Amino acid sequence: MNTILSLPIRLLRLMAQSISLALVQIWVNKTRSVLTTLGIIIGVASVTAVIAALSGLKAKIMSDIETFGTNRIFIWPTRPDTGKYKNVPWDSIRFKPEQFEGLLTYCPSVASFTQIDDERDSIRYKEKTLERIRLSGIESAWHQIESRPVIIGRAFSAIDQTQARSVCLLSQNLRDKLGMDRDCTNELVTIGYRTYRVIGVVENRPSMSMIGGAGGNEDYEVFIPFQTMYRNSGNRMWFMVMAASKSADVSEEAKAEITFFLRQRRHIEPGEPPTFNVQTVESEVRTFQKIATRFTLVAGAIVGISLLVGGIGIMNIMLVSVSERTREIGLRKAVGAGFAAILTQFLVEAVVLCCIGGLIGLGLGQLLTTIIAHIPQVDILDKAYIPAWAALMSLGFSAFVGIFFGLFPAVKAARLDPIEALRHE
Amino acid sequence: MSEKPVVIRLHDIRRIYKVGSEQIRALDGVSLEIYQNEYVAVMGHSGSGKSTLMNLLGCLDRATSGVYELDKQDTTRMGNSDLARVRNEKIGFVFQSFELLPRFSALKNVELPLIYSRQAVWNRKELAHKALERVGLGERTSHRPNQLSGGEKQRVAVARALINNPSILLADEPTGNLDSKTSEEILGLFRRLHEEGQTIIMVTHEADVACHAKRIIRMRDGKVISDLPTEEDTVWTHRPAGAGR
Ligand SMILES: Nc1ncnc2c1ncn2[C@@H]1O[C@H](COP(=O)(O)OP(=O)(O)O)[C@@H](O)[C@H]1O
Ligand SMILES: [Mg+2]
Questions:
Q1: Is A6 in the B-facing interface, judged by CB distances under 8 Å?
Q2: pLDDT mean across residues, chain B
Q3: Ligand 1 pocket, B30 CB below 6 A?
Q4: pLDDT of residue A16
Q5: pTM value > 0.80
Q6: Which end of chain A is less packed: N or C, by CB atoms within 10 Å?
């Protein structure tokens, strides 16, 4: 035999023999093997099921955010914690509509924007009054950014805004709740103490599992032109701005452009922290993903500790196995097995045992995952799945547990004195 | 006999066991030479050190002092893994209680030393088959030990010992667990192996077993007290007990 090749071939042979020997050994002691790997089985099953649930939750939230729109940008006034504007009066911080004139021209990455404010007020139609209804002042770009079109009638026009007309839009749910006809345009409703003419109906908000999908009063919405709301407040209203970048990819550019534009418009001195905040959903998503990943890993690690407990079972069975097979070890040594050969045999046996446990656990984990994904009342776990990395990690960890807890019994076996071993029993 | 090459050379071998504060001199200055194709019987009372000697010869144990050369190699200076290799390649050991692995077929049992051989052996099955044929068990290869008689078990063990063509075949009371008829069977096998050129050292305390060998070494208290060709020794054993030498 070629000397260069003989070492790897010998190692491979040793491995193959050890594995087949281990399988025979495990097969002979089926029941005992399964019982002792129970710790590993349960450990792996719970690790994978927990990770699957978390991954499913994450996938669900991500798909919600996708519906919500990842190209959205929120802009709102704030007083900075440091710098010159730290102690300016709150009122000087608020946005003013003229600060946003020409924004689209100077910010090429921004597709559209709307000034917006939400309040609560009562609404009355004929004899029916609803309290604390969500009242929003919006501009027509809102429908596109929110993906909630006007399905009957029309959106607010530029004239509605400039003349601050008393017109309104209702959500489908609110229209139905007020008992109005399907086409309720030109009906009159009273919001607070002012009367508005209904000019259209806005599609209901999509039902989302996680974000604000609370239902209830949130689904009863009434919209009026932003300018109407602003002027009704005596031009002293706090509001924010919601914009959409041309795509999620240019969100950061859009944010930079808006920041630059607003610093100029609001006369922020160079080097001073701004008196407003620009937040992209895209960066929120990234933060969320980071947190979710970390959370998954931590949960995985915590449950992974249970695998170590399983490892103690493995060590126990291997010690029993070594002492039961003392004579056999003695004989193997007598016919020429060295330290390494015996060590490999028992180590491989522990590892194979753990890996089989790991595979069974993985199967059980998949079963659990399928079950959670199909619990009828809980739809936030519908997307639960075992990611490939989790499956590989569980198996790798099982093998590691095998090596770690198999080492002591294997060394014990490999160090047996052949004569004493043969004299055993 | 003396023109043949030396297989084993022992020089002043001692093996001292420490039990608590007490020292047991299991071997106390043993020197001897064994030549190729010799057939030697080691005799002595229980506790005289026969097994200790065999374990040393089989490289299962190390001498406390002295030199043991096997095939001109000094084993006393070898490391554990080299000793394992020597056991694998140069020594065939047959035990009183057979020491077959119960869950393995006869063939698998015979193959066992090849698993640990340092050279890759591709035709393990074939070699194991041949070894089983050599001991007259060509048809019982797939039987498990519990499906074999005592004599057959010991023959499987002999086949296993022979599989690597060892320099010496060591047998520690190979007939100790067998009835006289099957003992004869094994001794017949040994005689044939000897005729085929195998060097054999066998421990026994039965004179009619020992007389199959060509040379008899007698031990007492860890020392060799006589070492003679069988013909001369036999005369001596037939003297009345207590007559001395
Ligand atoms: N592991 C050991 N520890 C202590 N004493 C031992 C050990 N092995 C053998 N002996 C002692 O060494 C002596 C020789 O034993 P042994 O070689 O087994 O004798 P035999 O095989 O001739 O009956 C005996 O006195 C025995 O008690
Ligand atoms: Mg003995």
A1: yes
A2: 91
A3: no
A4: 83
A5: no
A6: C
Residue of B83, B105, B115, B119 to mutate, interface with A, max A Cβ within 10 Å: B115
Q: Residue A419 and residue B84: Cβ atoms within 8 Å?
A: no
C-alpha to C-alpha distance for A251 and A313, rounded to whole angstroms:
54
Residue B167 DSSP code:
S
Q: What is the pLDDT of residue B32?
A: 95
**ipTM of the assembly?**
0.93
Q: Which domains does chain B have, with CATH numbers?
A: 37-59+89-232 (3.40.50.300)
Nearest to A385 by CA among A401, A373, A374, A377: A373
Burial class (CB in 10 A: 0-12, 13-18, 19+), A139: buried
| Pair of tokens at residue A19 | 């594995």
Ligand 1 nearest atom to the CA of residue B50, by list position: 22
Question: DSSP string of A97-156?
Answer: GGGGTTHHHH-TTEEEEEEEEEEEEEEEETTEEEEEEEEEEE-THHHHHTT--EEEE---
Contact A112, A141 (CB under 8 A): yes
User: Would the CB of B56 count as within 6 Å of ligand 1?
Assistant: no
Of A1, A336, A422, nearest to B99 by CB-CB distance is A422
Q: What is the pLDDT of residues B82-100, one digit of tens each?
A: 999 999 999 999 999 999 9
Structure tokens of B73? 């190699």
Report the pLDDT averaged over residues A165-176: 95
Distance of CA A66 to the CA centre of its chain: 12
B230 lines ligand 1 (CB under 6 A): no
Q: How confident is the model at residue A263 (pLDDT cuts 50, 70, 90)?
A: very high
Q: Would you say the CB of residue B43 lies under 6 angstroms from ligand 1? A: no
> How far does residue A172's CA lie from ligand 2's centre (Å)?
100
Give the closest residue (by CA) to ligand 1 atom 11.
Answer: B26
* CA distances (Å), origin B130, targets A104, B156, B164: 93, 12, 11
